[in-house]
Recover the amino acids of this structure.
């Protein structure tokens, strides 16, 4: 069998398999579809054996991909679990500190009237306690989602401004 013919059969069979419902398709159906498309009788012994090899190879590759995705997902879940185990910082009001933007500013998540708020706020220290000032903003979940969705546009605008300044 010629190399070019093998390449055409391989590509056609793989494409047909990728487009098929793997629970419904059989090697025989794939061979028939590929035969029609390529105008070759793939039921002949050398072709039939080659198609079988391509199908088995494709199935093995799909299983390997699936296993790799499962391993990556498991690793990501384990990483999230580890992050969750790390000690979280809470401020003097009992609000979760997500990050510190500077020694005076931080991002916290708090609950107000039973709803979560994301707060970016300036703090001051009084008698050893960090207390919030009126300088800052608290966002509801909806407002935070809108902001998050628009972060790429904000970053793009900042980059444009920086390029004009430099």
């Amino acid at each position: 069998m010629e190399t070019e013919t093998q390449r055409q059969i391989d590509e056609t069979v793989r494409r047909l398999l990728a487009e098929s419902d793997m629970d419904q398709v059989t090697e025989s159906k794939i061979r028939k579809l590929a035969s029609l498309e390529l105008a070759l009788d793939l039921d002949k012994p050398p072709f039939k054996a080659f198609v079988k090899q391509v199908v088995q190879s494709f199935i093995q590759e799909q299983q390997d991909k699936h296993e790799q995705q499962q391993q990556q997902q498991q690793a990501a879940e384990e990483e999230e679990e580890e992050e969750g185990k790390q000690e979280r910082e809470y401020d003097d009001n009992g609000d979760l500190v997500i990050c510190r933007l500077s020694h005076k500013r931080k991002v916290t998540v708090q609950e107000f009237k039973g709803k979560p708020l994301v707060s970016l706020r300036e703090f001051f220290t009084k008698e050893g306690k960090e207390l919030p000032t009126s300088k800052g903003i608290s966002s509801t979940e909806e407002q935070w989602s809108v902001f998050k969705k628009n972060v790429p546009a904000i970053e793009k605008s900042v980059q444009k401004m920086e390029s004009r300044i430099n």
Remarks:
- The chain has two domains: 3-83, 89-165.
- The CA atoms of residues 73 and 107 lie 29 Å apart.
- The two ends are 63 Å apart (CA to CA).
- The chain has a mean pLDDT of 90.
